[in-house]
What we know:
By secondary structure, the chain is of the alpha+beta class.
Amino acid sequence: MKFRFTECKNLKQKPEAVNSFGKLFTDYMYVCEYSGGKWNEGEIKPFNALEMLPCASVLHYGQAAFEGLKAYRDKCGTVRLFRARDNFKRMTTSAERLCIPPVDEGQAYNALVELVNIEREWTPTESGTSLYIRPLVFAADESLGVHAAKNYKFIIILSPSGAYYANGFAPVALKVEREYVRAGKGGTGAYKVIGNYAASIKAGELAKEAGYDQVLWLDGNERKYVEEVGSMNIFFVIDGKLVTPELDGCILPGITRDSVIKIARHKGISVEERPITIDEVLSGAKSGKLTEIFGTGTAAVISPVDRLGDNSQDIIIGGKGKVGEISKLLYDTLTDIQTGRKEDIFGWVTTVEAQ
Ligand code: COI
């Protein structure tokens, strides 16, 4: 074993089936600390409370970035990580945006492999489940004042999880958000930083009260262009082509987004990354040019959208409760690669061998 290891005296009972998202956690976590200008090796230790004083800087100023990725156990018992190195690469860009000293990506990956190997029995195998992995890096100074902290912690925790949305691979409803905005040019919209999520909660709660699952964000400048959903990037099928907002510095460069684009192109589906106005979406949905909408994200995987609400009017996309053909094809192909049912021709999966 490479990393210092502290044994857990009381292992938890593993659940027979997993049907929640982010509520169960495994026995161990990885913790690494930054002080005196460098990160230490870190250690794997029992999953437990982190010691933190009330003046810990992250609590006051939100200097923190995170990632979300998944491990799957295939029918031979091999644990498969999906694009883990890409997540750590993105964590570096998020950290740099917030003046957090980046964690060495190789070290983070090796720690994850070792942690997942210890916890491999926690990786669920039922369809639609996975071991959800949450790396988080945050400021840990014990003083007040807005400036780059001098001390940080990096942790990785593991959560055996089912689908992010309660109904699994079933359509969700989105409300077009006309009042609040998620991001603006020069802001942090393209980075996975905790403040983006805090800023989205109010609009999300209002959308839920109004009978929707999430909001569809528009650009912060003109409120004209579609951006993303917050927990997902967004795709439209217009005239048989896949159309998704381009990476304009305000939306998250989703790893599932990128995977879906590559799979679609490989299957001969034409993909356009370009600005899309909400008017084009609404008029396309009304005229029938727009036939499918779906969101993509690690947690949400591919989530079909069957209802779009705007100014108290609903538009049904492709039939209530229906999953479009292209959405289903992309979902099946992506999850087949992730879980090992199909060959990974893109080289996205790395395996965690039992030691
Ligand atoms: C993920 O898709 O992994 C995320 O981090 C999004 C979050 C809303 C669960």
